Structure formats: C-alpha cells, structure tokens
C-alpha cells in the first residue's frame, strides 16, 4: 500500500487530501485513517482492487462514497510483434510526433476541452467544484509535459488547424509501458485520431523492447475500450475509488446537468 499527502489536490480543491493506493486489508485502511487524522486531512481518496470486498464494506461503513470503477487493460507485446503495421499512408489528415516545449499551451487547451465535465472520480464527488475537477486533469497534463523525458513520453496529433490530440505514456522499470492520459478536441472526434495514437504507442513499445503495455479507464467509457480491444488489449482487473470526507461542515457543490462520458 502507498499513502501520501496530495499537494496537487490540495492546491486545486483547497482541502487537505490524502491519497492511498493498493489497500489490501482492514489494517491498511486503519493506517490510512490514522495517517489522515494525524495530517488533519479533509479528504481521503482510496483506491483498491475490486476483489477486496471486506475493505469495501468497511469503507462504506465509515461513510465513504464510491466515485468510480476503473478497468485495466493489458497488451503483451510479443503477441502483436508481427501483426502491427510499421508504416501508415500519407493520406491521413493529421500527423503524430513527440511533444516539444512550445506545444505546452496548445496541449493544455486540448486537455481543457477534452476533460470538460468528464466523469472521473473527482467529478463524481458532489463535494467538489466541477470547474476545479476539470482543471485537476489539466494540471496533471501540464505537469506531465513539463516532466517529459526518458520516463515520461508525450505524443501529440497535429492537423492543419494545430494540435488536436495528445497521449501521455509512463515508462516503468519492469519493461512495462503505461498509457496514462489522453484527449482529443471535439472537431476531430470520429476521425481515428485516438486510434492512431494508441497504434503509435504500441509500435513505440515494440520498437523499444517493452514486454507489456497497460492502461485504464472508467468502466462506463466504452468508446476507448473498443479501440483497445481492437488493438489486442485484454481486460486484467478492476479497481474501486472511494472518497471519504472527515469534516461534516463541508457542503456539496451543485451538480451541472451536462456530463461527458468518455
């Protein structure tokens, strides 16, 4: 289990936030609660495997709310090494390349549009401001671009009107490549931009010797899951994300009617 104070969430939402990942037992949960209390946390965000039902029940007993269910997919590179094309036609109306420093504003704008009213665990929490939830993903994107390098890769899609999509990738030490954050602007939806970015990532992983590629999304986000399965990805596991608030005087924020699934 890993638990820590999230400076990014505290800066964005104005509440002291503890994040915990990989809870395995009631004892892990008790440690998270103790850590949160010792740090005077307002909010605990806990993520755990969906099979840990006893921990789930205890979280619910403590007043935690389920804010999302993630599904993880994995692709074994050896299985597709000889089936992924290495070249694509010049007829595509966009091109893919690695991000450059001058792209930061444009990529941030794409993230802001793509994640407007996105339904992630932040947006599912009625205590959090909707605009701040949007900006949480934008900040995540900005941070990744600033840290782009050997361990963090960012791919952008560009057409005649500018950058229209992005995909961030994280390199793990065990020869695994994680596809982390992605988005496309609405004007190119349905034109295959996201599919080509995933293909690019698979080609990159095979070319550079990765053994596996993995990624995740909310179970309600069916569109991207169809793209992944078409590329040979298979589902591996589910994880729940719970939010536990510690202070009763924090009031829910009114929820807008417009929500974006995927």
From TrEMBL:
Q: Which residues form the signal peptide?
A: none
Q: Which Gene3D superfamilies match?
A: 3.40.630.30
Describe the location of the N-acetyltransferase domain by residue ranges.
94-254
The family database entries (SUPFAM superfamilies) matched by this protein are listed as: Acyl-CoA N-acyltransferases (Nat) (SSF55729)
Matching entries from InterPro entries are given as:
Acyl_CoA_acyltransferase, GNAT_dom
* UniProt keyword list: Transferase
* GO terms for MF: acyltransferase activity, transferring groups other than amino-acyl groups
A Pfam family annotated for this UniProt entry: Acetyltransf_1
Q: Which domain of life is it from?
A: Bacteria
Q: What is this protein called?
A: Acetyltransferase (GNAT) family protein
């Amino acid at each position: 289990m890993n638990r820590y104070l999230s400076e990014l969430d505290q800066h964005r939402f104005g509440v002291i936030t503890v994040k915990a990942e990989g809870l395995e037992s009631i004892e892990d949960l008790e440690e998270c609660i103790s850590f949160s209390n010792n740090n005077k946390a307002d909010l605990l965000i806990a993520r755990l495997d969906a099979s840990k039902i006893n921990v789930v029940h205890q979280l619910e007993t403590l007043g935690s709310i389920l804010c999302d269910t993630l599904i993880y997919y994995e692709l074994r590179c050896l299985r597709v090494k000889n089936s992924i094309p290495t070249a694509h036609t010049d007829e595509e109306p966009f091109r893919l390349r690695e991000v450059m420093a001058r792209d930061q504003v444009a990529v941030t704008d794409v993230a802001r549009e793509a994640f407007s009213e996105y339904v992630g665990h932040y947006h599912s929490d009625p205590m959090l401001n909707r605009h701040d939830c949007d900006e949480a993903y934008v900040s995540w994107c900005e941070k990744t671009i600033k840290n782009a390098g050997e361990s963090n890769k960012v791919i952008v899609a560009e057409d005649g009107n500018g950058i229209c999509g992005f995909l961030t990738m994280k390199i793990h030490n065990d020869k695994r490549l994680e596809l982390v954050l992605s988005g496309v602007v609405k004007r190119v939806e349905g034109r295959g931009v996201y599919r080509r970015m995933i293909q690019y990532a698979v080609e990159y992983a095979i070319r550079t010797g990765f053994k596996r590629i993995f990624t995740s999304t909310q179970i309600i986000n069916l569109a991207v899951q169809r793209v992944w399965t078409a590329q040979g990805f298979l589902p591996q596991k589910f994880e729940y994300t719970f939010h536990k608030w510690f202070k009763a005087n924090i009031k829910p924020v009114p929820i807008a009617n417009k929500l974006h699934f995927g």
